[in-house]
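A common beginner's mistake is to predict each chain separately and then try to dock the pieces by hand. The better habit, illustrated here, is to supply every component at once so that their relative placement is modeled jointly.
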Amino acid sequence: MTTSNPKQVTPAKGKLGVLLPGMGAVATTFIAGVYAVRKGIAQPVGSLCEMGTIRLGKRTDNNVPKIRDYVSLATLDDLVFGGWDLFEDNCYQAALEAGVLNKDLVESLKDELSAISPMPAVFDPDYVKRLRGEHVKTGTSKMHLAEQLMEDIERFKKENACDRLVAVWCGSTEVYREPTAVHATLKAFEEGLRNSDDEIAPSQIYAYACIKLGVPYCNGAPNMSVDIGAIQELARETRTPIAGKDFKTGQTLMKTILAPGFKARMLGIKGWFSTNILGNRDGEVLDDPGSFKSKEISKLSVLESVLQPDKYPELYGDLYHKVRINYYPPHGDNKEGWDNIDIFGWLGYPMQIKVDFLCRDSILAAPIVLDLALFMDLAARAGESGVQEWLSFYLKAPQAAGETGAEHDLFIQQTKLKNTLREWMGEQPVTHSEAG
Ligand SMILES: NC(=O)c1ccc[n+]([C@@H]2O[C@H](COP(=O)([O-])OP(=O)(O)OC[C@H]3O[C@@H](n4cnc5c(N)ncnc54)[C@H](O)[C@@H]3O)[C@@H](O)[C@H]2O)c1
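With all components supplied together, the output reads:
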């Protein structure tokens, strides 16, 4: 049932360049996956853009197109990839090094993956203590580094004949820092770039360069970047969509599936202990207390927001929530997310749930990178700018567009995402009421 005015969405024509600051496990699993799907040797499992459907009108209307057939999205054939890293390895070498995908699959994509080499990074070892790399830019100031990134972006766009670009940060988690005066306004931030202010992180320089050029930007890691006042001001000024932060995979995905269910049935929770055992480079970086702090804060925010202990003090007022990350090389990218949940039911009787999720981190993250890239590009073509709260579905610590705070419940996030698409197309939202 079409009702209101649809948005004017410019059709997705021509090539979409996907720029990835950080070309490690997640980025190469995403790129290799897109090539594998293009060649017809694998399925894009986990991608809403490629596999999801959207119901239109009443249930009895039986009108459920694929999302890709409903809104205008770039096709996988239209995607071109580029990015930056402090290691020189091309994507073939980096995918082998990451060890996520089978060697046979990586070999079958050798030509495509070898053709993508990272551009030199903007990097500062004070922000990622466990890494050192030679493939880095030098400059007279942080502003000079931002200008070099902007030159890279423009050159990439021209050389690959791209119609549009989007960027998704897939770089390592930087250390935890509080925002300071330099992050508050665009004027202070640009002054800080010129003075090479210590408080400006490399990830913020990438965000600045992309958004300055109107390239939609999404932050897949938990460190602060598009959530600072200065970058939000820049996004408003250049009318650029932004989203963050931290891909919602593994344990947090499980948490936001389970916790809304307990709450829906008014079951109480006394404790939730979560530990992660992982052995990839991300795990090594998170072994540093500063980087772990960024991750811990992002992971802890979830339960409080879903369970609303202020509204249900008898059920969730005393909840003890603990999150741990353990670097254990033998596990590689195959993370073990282990949860012990102490719940209670009728008359307060206790019960326990144990979840042992033997997951594959980058396999869960890759379709999120794809969907964020395609949906951020859609948002830009729909004339949207600023925080894209409807994409909170994909993010562990989603940014809110308004004052009310972001939603963490996966199912509310999914409804929000689909209803946003319906609204843009001038369709009634689906309410799931008896009448609908
Ligand atoms: N895999 C998941 O499930 C998941 C979930 C949520 C968030 N993340 C985040 O995604 C990011 C990528 O994860 P990954 O497993 O691919 O890690 P990774 O260590 O394999 O890859 C990160 C890459 O970023 C590069 N890098 C670091 N700083 C950089 C900079 N300033 N400029 C350019 N490159 C830089 C590193 O050299 C490395 O190659 C991490 O921050 C991680 O915390 C991953």
